[in-house]
Specification:
4 strands, single chain, alpha/beta, 4-stranded parallel beta sheet
């Protein structure tokens, strides 16, 4: 796998790099039905579309690239085994993440030029559990869920990871440790970004302010 970290970092010292927009709303605009997802039981599981409708996923990636995005995200926001298990797909998490990364990689490589290279960010969403707010999962279990997802993303060829829409700093730390686990296994690293979601009351759902999140993650 090609390591484009130096190229990515160099570009970020020169200009702002533009990421794509939301995947979910783009998919909603496609008016997909149960058959597109592989049956009624899987309807709403956007992650399975990388297998059942890869053409649709590629269309979304290509649309954002055509609009000028420098970085596109994989279709893996709910790609942990924890979330996929709600559709009976928990054991397929790693393979689905790898496939999603491969599709994004294909689209990015198609659009890349010497003057405007394109990059793939592996999307790691917050899951449906919060260690602080909802419980229902332990830190160790959550770390393993994230590890399996990130392993698939790295195998599929992402250039960086984006731990996104974070609502609980403890969840975020589990994802960061999982990334370190995978990097150690693979013997190579990728840049990691974090985005936190601040609610109208001025904090994340678990109560941390933006400043508290930044301080908590400063060591990484």
């Amino acid at each position: 796998m090609t390591d484009r970290t130096d190229e990515l970092r160099a570009l970020m010292t020169e200009r702002v790099l533009v990421m794509d927009g939301a995947t979910g709303t783009m998919l909603q605009s496609k008016n997909l039905g149960p058959a597109d997802f592989g049956g009624p039981d899987l309807e709403g599981c956007n992650e399975i579309l990388v297998e059942t409708r890869p053409d649709v996923i590629l269309d979304v990636h290509r649309a954002y690239l055509a609009a000028g995005a420098d970085i596109i995200e994989t279709n893996t926001f709910g790609g942990t085994p924890l979330v996929l298990a709600e559709y009976g797909l928990g054991d397929r998490a790693e393979a689905l993440n790898t496939r999603a990364a491969e599709l994004a990689r294909l689209a990015a490589d198609e659009a890349s030029t010497v003057k405007k290279p394109r990059f793939v960010a592996g999307s790691v969403g917050p899951t449906t559990k919060s260690l602080v707010v909802t419980g229902g999962v332990t830190f160790t279990e959550l770390r393993e869920h994230f590890r399996r997802q990130i392993r698939g993303l790295v195998a599929g060829g992402v250039d960086l990871l984006l731990i996104e829409t974070c609502q609980d700093t403890l969840n975020t730390k589990a994802a960061l440790l999982a990334a370190e686990d995978v990097f150690a296994e693979a013997g190579e690293r990728r840049p990691v970004g974090v985005s936190g979601t601040i609610e109208p009351m001025g904090t994340m759902l678990a109560g941390q302010t933006a400043e508290a999140l930044a301080v908590s993650l400063d060591h990484v």
